[in-house]
Each structure stands twice: as C-alpha cells, then as structure tokens.
C-alpha cells in the first residue's frame, strides 16, 4: 500500500513540476531526493524497492520532458549507492532517450 501511495505521489509531483516549468518557460531539471535523505547505511534506496522507485522517477521525468535528473538520493561519492554504476547508467540512458 505504501509503495503505491509513494508512486502516485511521485507522478503527481513530477507532473506538477513539469507544468510549473512549462508555465514559467524554464527547463525542467530534478535534483536529488526521490526518496528523501536516507541514512548513510540505511539500504532502503539501495535495495530493490528503492532502486525501482528511482527507475520509475527517471522514467516519469523523461516522459514529461525533463532535461535531467539525479538518479537517486544517495548517488554521491560518500554513499554505498554510488557504486551502483549499472543503475546510474541505466537511468541516464532513459533520460538521454
């Protein structure tokens, strides 16, 4: 149930951001934080549910025409998820079309 609610909210927020960007004539680019700031060794975002959420966020971002997005909240050098190079490449490929 929480997964569905998170996904629905994600789509709503991305669509709202796209509408705002279009209305203000600015490029749409998403920074980090699909999940929010998770603890350094929390492992949620690094796990299958969190990674799937990142993929969904990037797919939605591409669908609404975003110019770019950070793949996930924890893809930074100090976080374990930084080592998930395959996920980062996969999501970047989606954004590049």
TrEMBL record:
Q: Which Pfam families match?
A: Cellulase-like
Name this protein carries in UniProt: CN hydrolase domain-containing protein
InterPro entries in UniProt: Put_cellulase (IPR024778)
| Species in which this protein is naturally found | Streptomyces violaceusniger
């Amino acid at each position: 149930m929480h997964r569905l609610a998170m996904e629905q909210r994600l789509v709503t927020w991305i669509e709202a951001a796209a509408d705002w960007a279009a209305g203000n004539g600015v490029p749409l680019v998403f920074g980090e934080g699909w999940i929010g700031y998770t603890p350094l060794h929390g492992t949620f975002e690094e796990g299958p549910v969190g990674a799937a959420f990142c993929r969904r966020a990037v797919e939605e971002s591409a669908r609404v025409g975003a110019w770019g997005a950070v793949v996930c909240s924890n893809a930074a050098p100090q976080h374990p998820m930084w080592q998930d190079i395959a996920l980062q490449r996969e999501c970047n490929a989606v954004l590049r079309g």
